[in-house]
Design goal:
By secondary structure, this protein is α+β, with helices and mostly antiparallel strands. The protein is built from 13 helices and 17 strands. Helix 9 (306-327) runs antiparallel to helix 13. The two termini are 21 Å apart.
Length: 471
């Protein structure tokens, strides 16, 4: 067996403890008077309707003309898009074509304290309509929470001349580009217009070349680019003088995509939803999870001794990585709405992680009782256990991926079976898949690395510590 340097065990164990602490408790501070979260923890997880309750609202077109089925379907799709853009996967959307109304249910934010349904609706901008207007005249200027100016209420020609509406935009996507002034890589937003939008925009850009066309979300101006060229093919980009950051470009693109409503919506009813499990259920689940983890850890140490301790450290890393993938700990992984089936996926994947460590530890113990040396027993045990661990995990991963594809926000079978239950089953598939990936990282790779490392110490050379006979 190829030896692993002795310090590796302590380095890996320390990194796992650091990941566990930060992923559970997060890191936050104060930026002046405003609290700032630097690294998200468990407290930042958005819990599903079944655990924490949420909001139920009914939207109707702000027009007396009866909406067509196509318009209602378009409005429903935009509302779902807004849910996904806000990383809300546990939602329910129902469309009543006969009475022109859309019923929406979604959970509270993770840091919700007032439980105000109207505030939750405003968070989604669920009734907002995007418009492209001539100029950038406004009657109100305030300062946002970030200290930046907020321009509201168009006036003059900006109020009267609407060039495009949200449904004239087919897509808005952030893309990487190079700033001609600074030479640095920045982001811009690429727009693709519909046929009708292309014609209207060609006329407007010819008339307003070197002037401003502002973009509004209802009565708030969200961008004010200058027209550099006449655009006739329906493809254009929105730039900022210093370039957009990745997050700003993504946020603006999401607002434009989400504002493509065929008509303005009004809220006709609004109320709170109580959690189906009761508010005390979350505390009970937390306590049960801590007790269960402690019992499993003690069992592993009692049965497999030193290998059990190594397995416990790896299992802690697996749990921490799952929390990190759910809370938005990593900047490149969005936060996730946690439901009761999602918790079931975590529990199942933890069980598979324990099983992976038990299989490897048992194989090593069998090799030791067969008379092999410690190094050879560890090498053979790891080798012979891998296929069983891999087969069990990869088949479960395939099932988890299928659940996410079929019941996720982008439902590959919706054209055949219609809209399905997005939140609950998708949540189970997501946490199960994350758990399996975490199991491979910690239950297979990290456990083996730490076992090889710690076996190099003189105090850890006894076969008995690995479940073998006393010497």
């Amino acid at each position: 067996m190829k030896r692993v340097p002795k310090p590796v065990f302590f380095i890996v164990a320390l990194l796992i403890l650091l990941l566990a602490f930060t992923s559970i408790f997060g890191i936050s501070g104060q930026n002046g008077d405003n609290p700032t979260t630097y690294i998200k923890g468990v407290k930042d997880i958005r819990w599903g309707i079944d655990i924490n309750g949420g909001v139920e609202t009914t939207f109707s077109p702000a027009t007396k003309t009866k909406a067509t089925k196509e318009q209602m379907d378009s409005a429903e799709s935009i509302i779902k898009l807004r849910m996904v853009n806000n990383n809300i996967t546990d939602y329910e959307v129902y469309t009543d074509y006969n009475h022109d109304r859309i019923i929406v249910r979604f959970p509270w934010k993770s840091d919700e304290k007032t439980f105000d349904p109207q505030k939750a609706i405003n968070e989604l901008s669920a009734t907002a309509l995007v418009t492209f207007r001539e100029g950038r005249e406004c009657s109100t200027q305030t300062t946002g929470s970030d200290g930046q100016p907020v321009y509201q209420n168009p006036k003059g020609v900006t109020a009267s001349d609407i060039i495009l509406q949200g449904n004239d935009v087919k897509s808005a996507k952030p893309e990487l580009t190079q700033n001609n002034t600074t030479g640095k890589a920045t982001y811009q937003i690429a727009l693709q217009l519909s046929d009708s939008g292309t014609k209207k925009f060609a006329v407007a850009t010819k008339r307003l070349k070197n002037q401003t066309i502002s973009i509004w979300m209802d009565n708030t101006m969200i961008s004010w680019p200058t027209v550099d060229d006449v655009i006739t093919d329906g493809n254009c980009v929105i730039n900022s003088p210093n370039g957009f950051s990745a997050s700003d470009a993504s946020a603006l693109a999401n607002k434009i995509n989400a504002g493509a409503l065929p008509f303005k919506l009004t809220t006709t009813s609004l109320n709170s939803i109580n959690p189906t499990l009761g508010r005390s259920s979350l505390s009970a689940m937390k306590l049960a999870g801590i007790i269960a983890f402690a019992l499993v850890a003690l069992f592993m140490i009692f049965v497999f001794r030193l290998q059990g301790l190594v397995a416990d450290i790896s299992l802690l890393g697996q749990v921490a990585l799952m929390f990190a993938a759910i809370s938005g700990y990593f900047p490149f992984v969005h936060s996730f709405t946690m439901t009761l089936p999602g918790i079931a996926g975590i529990i199942l994947s933890i069980g598979m992680g324990v099983d992976a460590n038990i299989i490897a530890a048992t194989r090593i113990r069998e090799e030791l009782w067969a008379g092999k040396t410690l190094d050879l027993a560890i090498a053979n045990g790891n080798k012979h256990s891998f296929s069983a661990i891999f087969d069990g995990n990869i088949t479960t991963a395939i099932v988890a991926i299928i659940l996410m594809l079929v019941f996720g926000p982008s439902n590959i079978l919706s054209a055949i079976f219609g809209v399905s239950t997005t939140g609950t089953i998708y949540s189970f598939g997501y946490t199960l898949l994350v758990g399996i990936i975490s199991n491979f990282v910690f239950g297979v790779f990290t456990t083996r690395l730490m076992t090889k490392s710690i076996s190099g110490f003189r105090f850890a050379r006894s076969k008995w510590l690995y479940g073998g006979p006393k010497e």
